[in-house]
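Give me C-alpha cells for this 148-residue protein.
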Amino acid sequence: MTRPPTRPAALDGPATEDNAIAVGKYFAALVTYVTSTGDLVEWDALSGPDCQFCAGVREKAVAIHEAGSRVIGGAVDLGFGSAFDNGDGTFVASVELTEYASQVVSADGSVLEEVPSTATYRATMALGRGAGGWVVEGVQVDEIDVAP
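Here you go.
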C-alpha cells in the first residue's frame, strides 16, 4: 500500500470509546503502509515510547527500506472494532483485520520473505489520550484464522 490510510477525525477528537476504535483501526492500517513505504511520520507520532510492537514494526520498515528492498502485497481489510474505557484516560481497543499474502523483495528482485496465505488477526491495543493526543502504549496481535 503506497497511499496512506485516511487520517480519522478521531485523532483530534475527545477520549471516547468510538474514537478509540477509530484510532485503533487507523493504527492497524498504518502497519502495511509503513512497511510498504518506509514513511514513519504518522507511525512515530502515535507510537508510545514503551510500545515494543511499535518499535518492532518501525525497525522492520527501516531495515526493508535501508536495504533497498520493497514489500509487494499485504493489503489489509479492517473488520469489527470494539473499545473499553478504563476510566483513567486509557482505553483498550480491539480490531479484527485480514491481511493478504505478501512478499519482501530485494533490490535485485529476489524474494527475501514471503507470507503466502491470508490470515485474520485480532489486534488489541492499549491507548492513551492526553494533552498531546492519542498514543498507542502497547499492542498484542493474536491470529484468529489462516486461509491457504
